[in-house]
Amino acid sequence: RLLLLTSRPGRLVYDGPMTGPMSDLVAYCGRVGRPVPPHQNPADFVLDAITPGARDADPDAFVAYYKEHRRPEVVKRVAAAVAAPARPTPVGLVQATRDRYPY
After folding, report:
1. Is residue 101's pLDDT more than 90?
2. Residue 62: CB partners within 8 Å, gap ≥ 6?
3. Looking at residue 51, what DSSP letter applies?
């Protein structure tokens, strides 16, 4: 996954797939209201768009969109992960095997 944060202060603006032709990032920019221009590198575009003080930057639009549309799902996933039973650690698995099959 790719996490993008603004600078000064670091605020989360994107959390999504990093693989493929960045089509999710391109679509995401469009939903924010900052579509990636044709023939422009999406990564360069979004880094310029979220950098405070850069020409034509609008990091606040990305922050607001993330908070309203993506953050609630992240909060749900984190809560579910915290509530899930703990998985055994590799050390715990080795110890359980030793306890089960003592030599």
Report:
1. no
2. 6, 13, 14, 32, 34, 49, 50
3. S
Burial zone of 103 (CB within 10 Å; 0-12 exposed, 13-18 middle, 19+ buried)? exposed
Residues 6+ apart with CB under 8 A from 63: 6, 11, 12, 13
What band does 58 get if pLDDT is binned at 50, 70 and 90? very high
- Please report where in the chains the tokens 């089960």 appear, as a residue: 100
pTM metric for this prediction: 0.76
Distance CA 18, CA 3 (A): 9
Q: Read off the tokens for 41.
A: 């590198």
Tell me the C-alpha distance between 30 and 33, whole Å: 5
Q: Are 74 and 65 in contact (CB under 8 A)?
A: no
